[in-house]
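Bile acid:sodium symporter family protein
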Amino acid sequence: MDWLAALARQLTRFTAVVIILAAVAALIEPATFSWVKGDTQIAVLGVIMLGMGMTLGKEDYRILAQRPLDILIGALAQYTIMPLLAIAVAKVLGLSAGLTLGLVLVGTCPGGVSSNIMAFLAKGDVAFSVGMTTVSTLLAPVATPLWMMYLVGETVAMDGWAMFKFMLLVTLLPVVAGSVCNMLLHKKAWFAGVRAVMPAVAVLAFACIVGGVAAVHGGRFMESALVMLAAIAAHNIAGYVLGYYSGALFGMGVAKKRTLAIEVGVQNAGLATGLSAKFFPANAESAMATAVACVWHSVSGTVLGNLFALWDKRKAG
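Tokens:
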């Protein structure tokens, strides 16, 4: 099991590379990932959220209880900055309805499941990062449909109640199940081994989701590639900046500000991709935008974490 844990660490370390390779493979040979659709894609999303839940134990919930103000500030920043930024970027760049839908889906989803690793790389407050990811995920079944209805509900046909029920099933239930298993079985050696490899399973699952979208809609990517990348990059980078300075506004220290930047900027774009496929299956632009966001957020978050660490080294030197 040790070699599996070592492999899991490497896969987690090179998340962005794995996702990019899956996308390229799907573009070259769509049949490689064309099976990732419908109920299969939903099951893959559930596995990702189950893996996240398996990392949550009593200590994590104790942190939430001990630091309510930090978590409240983080949750408010997460669910105001990114949704409003998404619609603002869409209007400034004059995005099509499909690209706007995809960007808003990304913006209204909870924090990314890999953000905790990025916070660690950045020498941020990892406990704060875990707390923020947990709370934003638990709030997602309510917050995401409400924001979607408010921001794009008048221009895109959608069923907010159905999205709420779907997110309960795909996000909340697996997270709670994984967390309960962790608290009951954390002393079991076999469970510790399974938990150690789950981050790698999540990386492969994300890669499958992106590959599935690329297999189905990859031919449409070049039609709006440049404006799509510009919108995703602007949304993500502005999220980092505003997240950082929202921490400064409340007098947070350097570690917390870095964590808030990453937690606000890095979104669970894999979930956004699943929501796009489930509720807007005919919208190719939305599907591609959310899938590209998966890659971009993985790359940029890792780069930002390393840049923060490099800044510390230079200051120390």
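The chain is about 80% helix and 0% strand.
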